[in-house]
UniProtKB/TrEMBL annotation:
Keywords: Cobalt, Lyase, Metal-binding, NAD, Nucleotide-binding, Zinc. Catalyzes the conversion of 3-deoxy-D-arabino-heptulosonate 7-phosphate (DAHP) to dehydroquinate (DHQ). This is 3-dehydroquinate synthase. Its cofactor is Co(2+); NAD(+). The keyword Amino-acid biosynthesis does not apply. InterPro entries: Dehydroquinate_synthase, DHQ_synth_AroB, DHQ_synth_fam, DHQS/DOIS_N, DHQS_C. It comes from Flavobacterium cerinum. It holds the Pfam family DHQS_C.
Length: 355
């Protein structure tokens, strides 16, 4: 797969990743390498990564507990303290090896330690490969509120080695697939159509889909790196999806959802809103709903759940002047941003989602 050029950095794939690393991690450039992992990637991915890391530069491993609940400022403080105790300086480099929690949090740690040191992202989940590690967004959650604290700062490089996907359970693969579906829905109808039948998908097919998904996201963020306009399109499904994810994370009576599982529900709900606003046809909406529900189980919501989810919308980062702003589909492959939606229509979306 060809290397993709982004804003000031490159996205390398498979064998090209380690060629780049060996050329970059020279002892006269970096004083020390710090590899940040969580407890899952420490077990399943770190040994392979270290086996491919050819360098004479001293290496330190910093590990934290796996899970969205640890994507917070307290974990950052622990890692900043570890960096200090282990002698990290401004000529050190951080390599984040893991899923979206690791790349988001590790990137934020790097951007803020000593006012910023170099970092490289090595995404090991499908979700991180096609979404979290591309585009320069780094940050942590504030309580149950997703990604409320952070900065936009690009890594030195992103290294996508798809062999790490062999370590993932099916639910994690489905979680990443949601963002790939989204990329088709917002930008590329032909790409979307490739997901209508995944029964004969092989490794080469998956690699090609991942590569194209990264191209789509990179094209968007390259044109609008700080989310002033076009980049808002990437939030399709995320206004309600993030609220659902946050609600399930904080409510002990609800099953915690993976990011992609919540976004899948959000995409169906926001496609219904697009239909009712006159942007999507009935045929387009039912095609979207059929494809997504064929991959993801329907989540159950009570009336109280829905009220609580709507209350969480006020914290969405796209909001302006206290108003919730939605990204809706104008058709499959195009979007309308900054859309106002009444709460009554959101309730109707949830009602249709259940049926």
């Amino acid at each position: 797969m060809q290397t993709i050029q982004a804003n000031g950095y490159s996205i390398f794939f498979n064998e090209n990743c380690y060629t780049y690393l060996s050329e970059t991690l020279q002892s006269d450039v970096y004083s020390k390498i710090f590899i940040i992992v969580d407890s899952e990637t420490a077990n399943y991915c770190l040994p392979d990564f270290l086996a491919n890391l050819a360098t004479e530069v001293p290496i330190e491993i910093i590990e934290f507990d796996a899970g969205e609940v640890f994507k917070n400022i307290e974990t950052c403080t622990q890692i900043w303290q570890a960096l200090t105790e282990l002698g990290a300086d401004r000529k050190s480099i951080i390599i984040n090896v893991g899923g979206g929690v690791v790349t988001d949090l590790g990137g934020f740690v790097a951007c803020t330690y000593k006012r910023g040191i170099d970092f490289i992202n090595v995404p090991t989940t499908l979700l991180a490969m096609v979404d979290a590690s591309v585009g320069g967004k780094n940050g942590v959650d504030l309580g149950n509120l997703k990604n409320q604290i952070g900065v936009i700062q690009n890594p030195k490089a992103v290294l996508v080695d798809t062999h790490y996907l062999g370590t993932l359970p099916q639910n994690q693969m489905r979680s990443g697939l949601a963002e790939m579906l989204k990329h088709g829905l917002i930008q590329d109808y032909d790409y979307w159509r490739q997901f209508s039948d995944l029964s004969n998908l092989n490794t080469d097919d998956l690699n090609a889909l991942i590569h194209q998904s990264v191209i789509i996201k990179n094209n968007v963020v390259t044109q609008d790196p700080t989310e002033k306009g076009l980049r808002k399109a990437l939030n399709f499904g995320h206004t309600l999806g993030h609220a659902i994810e946050s609600y399930c994370l904080e409510n002990e009576n609800k099953t915690t959802l993976l990011h992609g599982e919540a976004i899948a529900a959000g995409m169906i709900l926001e496609s219904f809103l697009s239909l009712k606003k006159g942007f999507l046809t009935d045929a387009e909406y039912h095609e979207i709903k059929y494809v997504i529900t064929d991959i993801y189980p329907t989540v159950s919501f009570t009336e109280n759940d829905i009220n609580s989810i709507i209350d969480l919308l006020i914290h969405d980062k796209k909001n302006e002047f206290g108003k919730v702003k939605f990204v809706l589909l104008n058709e499959i492959g195009a979007v309308k941003t900054d859309q106002d939606i009444e709460n009554g229509l959101i309730f109707k979306a949830f009602e249709d989602y259940k049926n």
